[in-house]
Amino acid sequence: MSSSGRNGRGGNHNWHNGYGGLEMLHNSSTMEIFLGVGPIKKFGWTHVPSNAAFISTRQTLNPFLLCIHFHTPATMSQSLYLPLNHSPNLPFKGDGKWKKFGSLSRNRNPSHIKFSVQETPKATMLNAIPTQIPTQWYNIIADLPVKPPPQLHPKTFEPLQPQDLSHLFPDELIKQETTNERFVVIPDEVVDIYRLWRPTPLIRAKRLEKVLDTPARIYYKYEGVSPAGSHKPNTAVPQVWYNAQQGVKNIVTETGAGQWGCSLAFATSLFGLNCEVWQVRASYDQKPYRKLMMQTWGAKVHPSPSDITESGRRILKMDPLCSGSLGIAISEAVEVAANNEDTKYCLGSVLNHVLLHQTVIGEECIKQMEALGETPDVIIGCTGGGSNFAGLCFPFLREKLQGKINPVIRAVEPTACPSLTRGVYAYDYGDTAQLTPLMKMHTLGHDFIPDPIHSGGLRYHGMAPLISHIYELGLMEAISIPQIECFQGAIQFARSEGLIPAPEPTHAIAAAIREALHCKESGESKVILMAMCGHGHFDLPAYEKYLQGAMVDLSFSQDRMQASLANIPHMS
Ligand SMILES: Cc1ncc(COP(=O)(O)O)c(C=O)c1O
């Protein structure tokens, strides 16, 4: 390694003669990294002088995918990747121009760097396209042609003020709930924890394609590699981190499938906060191991409805065997937070700040698709409250709004709980006891109790206000699929791809299979991208039901929805 400089500063100009290299330029807050193109030689770890204003290094070997690894005392190591199959387009062939390649924040200054080389990912090597962990979340509100309607106070029906939420959430999350900023910086400590499972793999489902005999190319972004087994820790970790920063000691929440409760229990265990979870009765009974996971991470778990809260007691009085719903469990947790100064509430979906945190999925995926040279034609995700769907789709929607790509974006919901496809778009409460703010969303009515389908995480009466708004703007579409078709797809997926999906993403799989079979008929080789938001290792009773032929398609009752919609607030 030798000192050098761009634009003629420094002494070593060998890259002018066709060599590639790396140059790092310090400024006050970041270290910018520039890359020169050319033949590159493999390098071992090289010390970076701590006071280097800029450094450069030359290599001689022609890679397809260049990896630059940074070792830093604080964060151990970090890697940046550049697919050099893009290099012919780079505008600096020995003319002294350097391409900006990335940057590291100043407090991550590396002490050592190393080059390594990977081959172009071939069809057989698509499992785990490397990429960086994003350092910013993306807020789609900044780019929407029409801003979403405000949330309203549940009693006065006036637009919500930040202080109206302060008994539930820490200040920073309230700010994120209403921000119009396009990007929000992810705190370093959160990025460090993301590193436990992120970046998550983007995988091509080649074996499923073969079974379906389709010309389509199917990709899935797999979030089941997180400690809790789903996308939910992407928001649990920052939510708990912001609470911990504000000195909060106790966190309460609800959980439907058990995935969110596990994620929050995992996150609170990292920061030493107490966690109490109301788990929807149907899932509490179906998923004892989810309860045990939460307890292992130190959380207290109650079945909902419970006799601990006023909201729970009211429901149990009407129906002692009530199977519960997310709306009821939310009421119980919100009630406890509202009545206890030292306790705050976390929500696993629906709200803007939750969707915001999930955009790490899509930001990573855009880079991974680019590295493959692929552009999605159809993007598919299941929707309960909408967070995994938004997490994958919103960054792609930004690209679509900018005219760079034009994928169809499709939400898939259960036929038994079809808020987007059958609900009304109206102001409604987020919970059964009417304690939450009023949100304009697609709703089946806040006291609608969906039949106990196996996808507990999709049994929510409403859709995220942001997704509802985007749906109204015509920027995405929605369909519903009954659970037997979903499990048929899940079995086909498990037997070809190996992974056993959680019941919720089986909806995305079934929709992707429909699309792939459509391609088979039409002969189109579309690129289908789907959100595989969790594994189903603790959902095997659902698979048992299906394999025994005992699963039934639970119905959706229009009459029950109409009865429930009669109770939503009537606004002028
Ligand atoms: C694995 C999984 N997928 C999807 C969902 C639905 O939530 P959302 O629509 O917010 O992604 C849940 C909710 O619990 C879940 O656990």
TrEMBL record:
GO terms for cellular component: cytoplasm. Tetramer of two alpha and two beta chains. It catalyses: (1S,2R)-1-C-(indol-3-yl)glycerol 3-phosphate + L-serine = D-glyceraldehyde 3-phosphate + L-tryptophan + H2O. Keywords: Amino-acid biosynthesis, Aromatic amino acid biosynthesis, Lyase, Pyridoxal phosphate, Tryptophan biosynthesis. It holds the Pfam family PALP. The beta subunit is responsible for the synthesis of L-tryptophan from indole and L-serine. It comes from Tagetes erecta. InterPro entries: Trp_synth_b-like, Trp_synth_b_CS, Trp_synth_beta, Trp_synth_beta/beta-like, TrpB-like_PALP, TrpB-like_PALP_sf. Pathway: Amino-acid biosynthesis; L-tryptophan biosynthesis; L-tryptophan from chorismate: step 5/5. CDD domains: Trp-synth_B. This is tryptophan synthase. Its cofactor is pyridoxal 5'-phosphate.
